[in-house]
Amino acid sequence: MATRPSRRDEFEIAVVCALSLEYDAVVLAFDEFWDDDGDTYGKAPGDPNTYTTGRVGKHNVVLALLPNMGKVGAAGTAASLRSSYTGLRLAVLTGICGGVPAPGTGDEIVLGDVVISKTVVQYDYGRQYPGRFIRRDTVDDNLGRPNKDIRALLATFETDRGRDALQRGATQALGQIRENAAKKRRRGAKYVRPSAAEDQLFKPEYQHKHRDGSNCGCVEQACEAARAASCNELCCDVAELVPRERLKETSESNDDPEFEIYVGCVGSSDMVMKSGEDRNRIAREHGIIAFEMEGAGVWDEVPCIVVKGVCDYADSHKNKKWQAYAAATAASVMKALLARYIQTDKPSAGDRTGSAASPTPPRGSGAVFNGPVTGKHVVAGQHTSGGTTNISFGN
């Protein structure tokens, strides 16, 4: 179990959230808080962030909530985080995302599943030509690979043993989140999984808009009123729903886990993806399995893993019914992931108090420089006598 750190530089793990509902789920996964009686760690000059500190399993963790969504806010928060907490080895960006459903395949994602980033693609970085956007795709333009430490960890999650351990840990953590939420009045039901009937995937070309008989003008594009309305209010046709084997199997069996965990490429952009056709096109082009808005901002600032729960299908029918549950499943996977993240050895007390420090040189040893030094003086010569190096300067 981690002991309470005495200094900021002893924190190695950060968790970053973009939304308050993501933050609410993450704090329920904490085992202890170090700031219940107020902050004792401070922060670096010029750092505008506000932090929550505590323990998640065996790790001391600093938690940061972004001031706003998007890559710019995420990059600024991550840079300031790194300036204050200089010992960070890993940041876990935790929250919600839009999933690429891939129905009928072995990677059929449903709502509530969790995606872990193996790589991140900044798919909105490029050039807009008439009728076509071309992403910049050179080595210099693409985000780099995670470091070896992260790649080795993610590789274990792609093995049967590693994935099973992660799934078990996440299931236990979700139980803890629900238990802690139940202790808060009126929050107990917040993280219950919605019914399978609430998990609706429409055909990608079927838009969320008013149908025949409406006077709003929804012909090719949806009006603002339609975008704000629910599928029930617009009478979206259930005949346009895509059947999924996962949902059928879940309803017929009580043995399957509530959610699955996927490791893959995550698309990051400042745009909210709300188009089934564009979702599928971009996913095919870049091998993306989920869409979110902050990963690219954090990626270059701190060694990072994106862990996000699927709350919608990144199409025009998206709604907020699954957001709290998806935030909870992501927080549970975050905790299970950290349980598998190996801590680095800490220096012993002897190392910290002197054995690792350089010995103080005896009096008279080392280099001694004689002579005035100005912008007009240059080194003219050097000789050593009795352990003392003398340097003479000339104009």
Structure commentary:
By secondary structure, the protein is α/β, with parallel strands linked by helices. The protein has two domains: 8-193 and 258-340, Rossmann fold; 364-395, no CATH class. It contains eleven helices and 13 strands. It has helices at residues 20-27, 71-84, 148-157, 160-182, 224-228, 231-234, 245-252, 276-286, 295-299, 323-340, 349-355; strands at residues 13-17, 32-33, 51-56, 59-65, 90-99, 114-122, 126-129, 132-135, 261-268, 288-292, 304-312, 378-385, 388-394. The strands form three sheets. A five-stranded mixed beta barrel has the order 5-10-9-6-11, surrounded by five helices. The protein has a two-stranded antiparallel sheet with strand order 7-8. A two-stranded antiparallel ribbon has the order 12-13. Helix 4 (160-182) crosses helix 10. The longest helix is centred in the middle third of the chain and has 23 residues, at 160-182. The chain is globular and about 70 Å long. Residues 353-369 have low confidence and may be disordered.
Question: How far apart, in Å, are the first and last alpha carbons?
Answer: 64 Å
> Taking strands numbered 1, 2, ... along the chain, how are they ordered across the largest sheet?
5-10-9-6-11
Question: What is the percent of helical residues?
Answer: 25-40%
Q: In CATH, what is the class of the largest domain?
A: Alpha Beta
Named CATH topology of the largest domain: Rossmann fold
Q: What CATH architecture of the largest domain do you see?
A: 3-Layer(aba) Sandwich
CA radius of gyration: 27 Å
Tally of separate helices: 11
Provide the β-strand percentage band: 15-25%
CATH-level-4 superfamily name of the largest domain: Nucleoside phosphorylase domain
Q: Provide mean pLDDT, rounded.
A: 84
- Count up the domains: 2
> What general form does the structure show?
globular
Class from helix and strand fractions: alpha/beta
Order of helices and strands: EHEEEHEEEEHHHHHEHEHEHHEE
Low-pLDDT parts are: 353-369
Largest sheet: 5 strands, mixed, barrel
How many β strands by DSSP?
Answer: 13
